[in-house]
Design a protein that fits this description.
This protein is an alpha+beta fold. 49% of the residues lie in helices and 21% in strands. Strand 4 and strand 5 form a beta hairpin. The longest helix has 23 residues.
């Protein structure tokens, strides 16, 4: 089994990397929550070291080796815990983990079905199964330092888009920035520009 791999990034896709190891290219799938930190984790020469989850995907009469990469053992550990839930295999988990692991762990512990259902491929029943299986078992993952960094990166892009919209609606820049800041200070789970603007609207109605 391949548990660790170091190579130069030759191709970066939406959810995968191709690492070059002495002229041999390895396809490695990367969860979105990990992919967001790939650039800052690679060296100036483009080399990177990944911990890998290695398994074989059976397709009809053939078995295809699959590698899923992580930047830390804690990320890999959470992935391995997550796939213990009935109906969630490695490929489903790869797709679902598109938010910071600390936030997912917190949602599981709090039984936050709405948050879990926002993960790709996770419906109402699967969210309930995740809580039933993992609640009170993933607390340590909620301590990961990924949360603030990811929220900051996400909020920055969303707030910039929201600012552009508010400026087009002829709000003064200082006023628009103030409204956005106030909403972000009390809502840390905003995931889209539309959601942010809706909260700005509600905030103004309460004045």
């Amino acid at each position: 089994m391949i548990s660790r791999i170091t190579g130069k990034i030759s191709t970066k896709g939406e959810n995968y990397l191709v690492l070059d190891l002495g002229g041999i290219g390895y396809d490695i799938f990367i969860p979105a929550c990990v992919m967001q930190r790939i650039d800052e984790s690679s060296g100036e020469d483009g080399k990177i070291t990944l911990l890998t989850y290695h398994y074989y995907q059976v397709e009809q009469s053939k078995s295809v080796p699959i590698l899923i990469g992580f930047l830390s053992q804690v990320e890999k550990d959470f992935f391995e815990v997550f796939i213990t839930v009935s109906g969630i295999g490695p490929r489903a988990a790869l797709k679902a983990l598109n938010k910071p692991i600390s936030l997912i762990a917190r949602a599981i512990d709090e039984g936050d079905l709405a948050f879990l259902k926002s993960l790709p491929g996770i419906g109402e029943q699967r969210a309930k199964e995740i809580v039933a299986k993992l609640q009170n078992k993933v607390g340590k993952f909620g301590l990961m330092r990924d949360r603030d960094m990811q929220i900051k990166e996400t909020a920055k892009g969303i707030s910039e888009e929201a600012l552009d919209v508010l400026l087009q609606l002829e709000y003064k820049r200082t006023e628009a920035l103030s409204m956005i800041k106030k909403v972000l200070e009390s809502n840390t789970r905003i995931s889209s520009t539309e959601e942010l603007l809706n909260l700005v609207y509600k905030q103004r109605r309460l004045k």
